[in-house]
Amino acid sequence: MAVFRGKASEAGEAKVAGERSLLLGIGISAIGIGMYVPFSLVFFHHVTGLSFTLVGLVMTVTGVAGLAFMPLAGSAVDRFGAKRVNLVLYGIRALGFALYPFAGSLPAFAAVALVTALADRSFSVVQQSLIGEVARGAARDRLQASTRALQNAGMGAGALLVSGVLALWGTGAFTWTAWANSLAFALAGLLVGRVRPVPAERSGPSAGRPAAGYRMVLRDRPFLGLTAANFLTALGYSALSVLFPLYLSTWLAAPDSLTGAAFTLNTALCAGIGVLVAGRVRRSGARRTRSAALGALLFAAAFAGQIVLGTLRPGQSATLVALLVIVVVYTLGELVHSPSGGALSVSAAPEPVRGRYLATYQLSYSLATALAPSLFTALLAVDGRLPWAVLTAAALGAALALLRLERHLPAEAVHAEPPAAAAARRPATTAA
């Protein structure tokens, strides 16, 4: 039994060829992202010399154009493979940041920003597809968790790095930061190029060519239900960055420094214990639908805690403690939901059209991110607790939807490893 248990474990936890290079590349690119995302408007203003108004306008227009490009990126993945498209996007981002310091006119900046935004917006779709292309079974869950931890750690390191650079050399260092970003993306592309996709599980005369396009996605009601459930959860992912600072300053009248403390705690937990939490969830044998639902329930608990806090409004010390506890619960929800939800979407997508499926799924995040600012500010204007009540209901609805969808989704998507293998491992563990 012990021998069989090892084989089963290997089937679910097999290492990916080139996995270290893949993860190192993801971490390096995250450092590059962290070097400019927290300072986007200021970064591009100083790099190009254009006004904040023009920079903001161009960023908005190119960002919307990037969303429209996502379906085409999904089609490209299905036609050429996720690894090839991933390398192309890294190359475009590297070239774009290398050219930003020379884009001193509005047309030049708009052109470079547009091409770079198309690559940036589509990158999450392609990276998710790449995980599906290089891993099977529980290895997908492990890569999802490792990727998220590295992205949080890398972005935090990048933000600290550029803060130190600016403190030493002033805003003139933004130009060098742009070129450092270009180098980071180029190096990440070289490292990711070493990963090896697993053989495709396709057969028949039509292998290698999708039988249908987005019509197939639109006919797949369980997957559309999964996408809708993720939209409800994705609203919660926007809460920490959009709603939390406004709620602190307007409803609780708390110092703005608490926002920084909350972000720091969230980032540290994601980077420090993200892989550990995901590993515990994975080894528990929980179905992906149920672990993702548990993450949504933890979100709901954190949001309900904000309602209680906003009603009681205790003193400053009690508020600080309560907020930190709420952030911990929120972060645990993120750590439980994200790997399971990501692996669930990747595994529920039919392999020949995985890119199109994941482009559709990723729109749930993009739409939630676009809707969150206007939704939260409108609700906050009525009552500070109202947006948290809506988020609580949304998270509970997402958890219920995930549980109801469980029997309609493919078994290989719901289970990180085949049920037979999981059942065989449990008696072996008991016998030991």
Report the strand count: 0
- Give the averaged pLDDT, no decimals: 86
Helix content: over 70%
Q: Helical segment tally?
A: 18
Unreliable segments of 5+ consecutive residues: 1-12, 203-208, 427-432
Q: Please identify the structural class as seen in this structure.
A: mainly alpha
Tell me the overall shape. globular
How far from one another are the termini? 9 Å
| Strand portion | under 5%
What order do the helices and strands follow? HHHHHHHHHHHHHHHHHH
What can be said about the biggest beta sheet?
none
Rg from Cα:
22 Å
Structure, explained:
This protein has 432 residues and is mainly α. It has 18 helices and no strands. The chain starts with a helix and ends with a helix.
Task: Name some characteristics of this structure.
432 residues, mainly alpha, disordered C terminus
Care to give the gist of this entry?
This protein has 432 residues and is mainly α. It is built from 18 helices and no strands. Helices cover 81% and strands 0% of the residues.
